[in-house]
Specification:
The chain is an alpha+beta fold and about 1050 residues long. The chain has 31 helices and 31 strands. The longest helix has about 70 residues.
Amino acid sequence: AAGEGGGAAADGADDGGAAGGAEEGESVWEKQLEELEALQASGEKLNDSQKNKLKKLKKKAKEKEAKDAKGGAPGSGSKSGAGKPSAAVLRMQEQIRLREEAEAAAAAAEAERIAQEEAEEAAAAAAAAEAEAKRLAKKERERLKKEQLKKEGKLLTGKQKEEQRRLEAMRAQILQNSGSSGNLAADDDGDGELRRSVVVDDRKKKKELFEQRKAEAIARKAAEEEAAIKKLQEDKAAAAAAEAAAKAAAAAEESDDAEDDWDAVDDLDALVKIPNKAEEERKAKEAAEREAARLALDAEKKRKAAEEAKAAKATAKPAPGSGGKGEKPWAAAARAKAEAAKAANAEASDSDSESGSDSDASGSDSDASGSDSDSDSDSSDYSSSDYTSSEEDSDDERERLHREKMQVAKTARLARFEAIKAARSADRLRCPIICILGHVDTGKTKILDNIRRTNVQDGEAGGITQQIGATFIPDTAIRDRTFQLNKGELKLDVPGLLVIDTPGHESFTNLRSRGSSLCDLAILVVDIMHGLEPQTLESLNMLRMRKTPFIIALNKIDRMFDWDAKADFPTRETLALQKQHARAEFEDRAKKVMLEFANEGLNAAIYWDNPDVRKFINVVPTSAITGEGIPDMIHTLVDLTQTRMNERLRFFDAVQCTVLEVKMLEGLGTAMDVILINGTLREGDTIVVAGLQGAIVTTIRALLTPQPMREMRVKANYVHHKEISAAMGIKIVANGLEQAIAGTSMLVQNKEDDLDELKDEVLSDMKNVFSRVDKSGEGVYVQASTLGSLEALLEFLKSDAVKIPVAGIAIGPVNKRDVMGASVMHERKRPEFATILAFDVKVTEEATRMANELNVKVFTADIIYHLFDQFTAYMAEIKAKKKAAAAEHVSFPCVLKIMPNCIFNKRDPIIVGVDIVKGIARIGTQLCIPSQGFIDIGKIAGMERDHKQVDKATPGQSVAMKIQPVSAAESSRLYGRHFDHKDELVSRITRESIDMLKENFRDELGKEDWRLVVELKKKFENHYGEPM
């Protein structure tokens, strides 16, 4: 406005210059020039008209100056007149000066305020520092005062105050008794008469008399203390003489009738303590107690060191013939500690009794105890505090002693075991333990039947192995079956073969010790007609994990077309007798099987063509029906065990035993099928096995073995043994075996063994397996029949190919408690994990009913792969249900463009043709329009492409889309009014929708789709102004 006004004034000046006089016109435009210059100097921005005017006026001023310079004197007058500032310039300068002064005054005021605040802060800080200094000084004075009181013996704890009151009452009582006996000189004043006249029946007078005596005793005590202090101050050097004189005077004044009352008192200072003397006695007593405690501690340390050295010596070289009768090191240490504690307690009780009855020491101890100030560190009751601390540490000490005891016992047991093992001889070998593994119906049991000449297979349900069996093949049977192959020239060093038939591979998992297999050699049976099958691969992986050597029995060679069976012939002989096409088919199928082994990373070769047994696995073609190849297999087993495993098979007399199965035996009760790997078992031995409720300790009642060449599970007459040596499959009959766990080790207690250590040892395997599972997490509940199969199942579920989380494990049949444990997953919001994977166990009826009530799924199977397949199918079903439920509420990310020539219906429902620009258009997705304030128009209800219904459309495709409104507001949306083809349609993204996409549809969205999710999320956050 000022500029416009200035411009108007300048225009007026020009007009006035044209109409009026020259001088008046000059003064007007000069004023205008000064005003504009002043405005420019003040920093105000000029508009275009003012800038042009200023330019013209400056040009005019220059012309005038040039004219004045030419005009001479008149010019000088006008020049001098022009040099004077105008009134407007002066006003502007005055305003600027006033503004600067105001700013300077404001700055000074601000600086003064800041200085004042700083001064106030400094004063407050100084006051705070002064208050803190006063507080610290006061605290220091209090500390010094407390220290002084401690030195003087006046700062007492509650216990010490109570003790002091007790002692004062005792002294008062003693003084009263002495007064009543007439032992003081005051008796001449008639006090004796007064005391003798108190025997009245009035209780009030008795109370008054008691109060009077008490007051007199206190006054007398104060007078005596004051006199004693003065006496000590006058002549310290003659204190002993004064004390003796006081004793003599007191003795002279004692009456004959009061002599018995004062027998326990040597001098008056024992009754009325002189403070300085009491302080000296207290300090002397404390020093003596500290020295005694130090000496006792040193003696205890020396005693402990001696006992530890003795224990180490006894462990390194046990005394011959001790038989456990001598005292063990831990027992000696415990006994020494108990004796030391007992002696400390005796000393404490002696000091307590002395403080109540003895004369000098009693008074000194009690006073020192009463006047001590620091109950934590300087307490005179040293023995009591030491006893209390030892009582607090007793639990930790017992635990430490128990651990040391267990460690010593374990070290000694392992040392004995290693010593026995080192002394084994190469002259005596035990039977090699052989497992047969393979897929279902490959002929495992039939091979054993053929070796034994029995027919167990046909007696089993469906021809499938139902139980674990162990067969001992003696050396005579080995020579007989291999006679045709080696013509009787077999060198046999082993006493026989112990072959364990197994349902699948279960017993192999049970034959383990500390994670390594106790199986010496395995036979992997492969059907030549089918090759490697799932359970064959599982068995192969287990053999690799345990690093167990094995051979391959390529069974069912008699299934070749036109095969001419030759019973019990060696393989090479029977092959030589076959027709050409039968041999060709056999060679072709054998090569295919070896190729499958090569795909698994293993080299395999027919045993007679094996270039190197260390690098190639022997393949023995067999027929369990005709017996062809059986001699070759037995010969290969004997040869490998004798030549490659001689050191491993050396017998030593230390028991190694594994539990295979626990079952009831008619007429004998519960029995365990065990494999004795090494050592000797005897009737009456004490055995320790792991049980479901803890370690089981029992005694062997009977040792049973099947007849040679018969299985353990066949019901026949068993052979009873008083003792039996390894290696052998044995039935052990004993009490309390109902809860024994198959797959665990069995230990025998010898005379030198500690029973508690053996219990810990048999439970260690279970603890290791159970500790692998985090029961606080999320996962399924796993149950198996034996510890070995449970361990194998956990390894399988943890493998990369499966990855099923586990939150609980158990051994034995599924019961109600297991179902309740699995139902916890419902509370943790993971209902899909409320399942039990039961491997080779039964499910009780109560557990089945409860599982139905609590909605817990129970899957049972005898093969690990079947469990996995069942659970995978169940998880896929759960996932499909979740997807179907989420599809109604989830919005897939998409950006759509309306095709302007494809508008079929404008409102409720909106039917238009759209192009998919980005993302995935899917039925159920909510659509909105960002360019129109993110208004919602409805959900995608249907799509057609090429006149066919589709569920989704991807970028680049064009579809006819039906958009169905879901609210009244969406029903009112009209194409052409609220939006048109220029507006983009996008899916509405919410936090819930993103979570559903991540949980249920992660695999259906690509990287570009997830980028679009992020892009749309940012748009919605920017529009609504809050994070999603």
